[in-house]
Design a protein that fits this description.
three-stranded antiparallel beta sheet; 10 strands; 14 helices; elongated; alpha+beta; 439 residues
Length: 439
């Protein structure tokens, strides 16, 4: 067995940073700092707000669906995995389905999964399962004096019991490391303001539509009716009238009994409103999609024209962002201990194994073929094994199998023969010089 180049972790040999970093609001050491400027998102309130956006808003839901399905379509290739332990680990946890939970780190800014190892029948050490630790159950991030997260405290939402989970047993996915926040930053954060105004306008629009369809209830009391007490508050008759105009509905239970002299009517809308709430809501939909680089999803939905070139450019940027997120997920697996490092150490690999996402970025293969064709035509580059490997990678093609590679030299010879015959025909058909030209 080749000697392993993987060095075991030696904490005593690691250089410790003496500077004390900023801490998040859930930290247990140093200054308690929360950089959130919106009070409704401060502390842990953001989890509930972003959950509403993810569950209720159709624009946010469609964008997250597009991201999730793109992630699931990605091919996750394992490298430096001679025994197949890393690939077997992904199969054990049903990686394609696990992606649906992992991508929630984009919604909340972070996601934590506890990994359980097992020994296979052939002696390989692999992942047995990955257990999600929901964001709203994490109540504390325990750190060392240097700001490194050592463990998390998870609270059972039903029983209220606390459990401490060490981070060296977990995969911790985050969008970024803003001021050393283990919570990260949700990609929905910049869309929150637009979502807040949009949802309020939708409520106002729904109330307005109901009033316009049923009419504004108007209850006119009798001339001798007294509705107020001496102190200006409503008396019993006034409260009855107030409840009538507030609770009257047009449905199968409708009906009204009035006292003598009282009249009731539903006042219709006098005309159109000054503002078109539909266009206002559509504008906020566009801002929500734009904040997540997915504005191409609503092109043409709101009667706005959009060219194919514009949609193509916008979608390319979206898929590029998704590719970046996929690379971030792969980096977590490749760098955090319980991921590829643990698999490599426990299986005596000579090198650290790694996983690489392939096919996240949407590529126009016709453009690629035309580009390479022009380069080959003018001998700017010549084909070689590395170029073929790269083309296969970006085009999501399988790796080259040397054992089954087909020889195409005969085709090349035929192309060369055809070219020589064409040159001979061109020479035969060329105009022959006259005697005067010879002289």
């Amino acid at each position: 067995m080749p000697k392993s180049n993987v060095k075991p972790i030696n904490k005593s040999s690691e250089k410790q940073n003496k500077a004390i970093p900023y801490m998040s609001v859930k930290g247990n050491f140093g200054s308690y700092i929360d950089d959130e400027i919106e009070p409704s998102l401060a502390n842990d309130l953001y989890i509930g707000q972003f959950k509403k956006m993810y569950y209720d808003d159709p624009i946010v839901g469609s964008i997250m669906l597009a991201i999730t399905k793109t992630f699931q379509a990605v091919e996750w290739k394992c490298k430096n995995d001679p025994k197949g332990a890393l690939e077997k680990s992904l199969e054990n946890v049903n990686w394609k389905e696990m992606i649906e939970e992992i991508v929630l780190f984009l919604v909340y800014g972070h996601s934590v999964f506890e990994v359980v190892l097992q020994e296979e029948e052939d002696g390989l050490i692999t992942w047995k399962n990955m257990y999600s630790r929901p964001q709203d159950t994490i109540v504390k991030w325990n750190r060392d004096p240097h700001g490194n997260v050592l463990s998390i405290d998870q609270q059972n939402p039903t029983l209220g019991k606390l459990a401490t989970i060490k981070m060296n047993k977990c995969l911790h996915f985050t969008t970024n490391k803003t001021i050393n926040r283990p919570e990260g930053r949700s990609i929905l954060r910049n869309a929150y303001r637009s979502w807040y105004y949009k949802t309020n306008f939708e409520k106002i629009e729904a109330i307005g539509v109901e009033r316009d369809l049923t009419g504004l209830p108007v209850l006119t009391p009798a001339e001798d009716a007294i509705l107020l007490n001496t102190d200006g508050t409503l008396n019993a008759l006034g409260l009855w009238a107030w409840q009538i105009v507030r609770q009257i509905k047009r449905n199968e239970q409708e009906g009204l009994v009035l006292q003598p002299g009282w009249t009731f009517q539903l006042q219709g809308s006098p005309g159109q409103r000054q503002f078109d709430t539909g266009s206002v809501i559509s504008r906020y939909d566009g801002k929500i999609a734009m904040s997540m680089l997915a504005q191409f999803l609503i092109l043409g939905v709101n009667s706005d024209s959009g060219s194919f070139a514009l949609a193509s450019v916008q979608s390319d940027l979206f898929y590029k962002a998704v590719e970046g997120f996929a690379i971030m997920v792969a980096n977590v697996i490749n760098t955090q201990f319980i991921g590829a490092r643990a698999i490599s150490l426990l299986n005596d690999y000579p090198e650290i194994a790694s996983v690489e996402p392939v096919g996240a970025n949407k590529l126009n293969l016709n453009d690629l073929a035309s580009f390479l064709g022009r380069l080959f035509k003018f001998n700017v580059i010549t084909p070689d094994d590395k170029l073929e490997e790269h083309v296969r990678k970006v085009a999501s093609l399988p790796e080259r199998d040397v054992a089954t590679t087909r020889v195409v030299q005969g085709v090349n010879d035929k192309i060369g023969v055809d070219k020589e015959q064409k040159n001979e025909e061109d020479t035969d058909n060329a105009p022959k010089p006259t005697k005067e030209e010879d002289s």
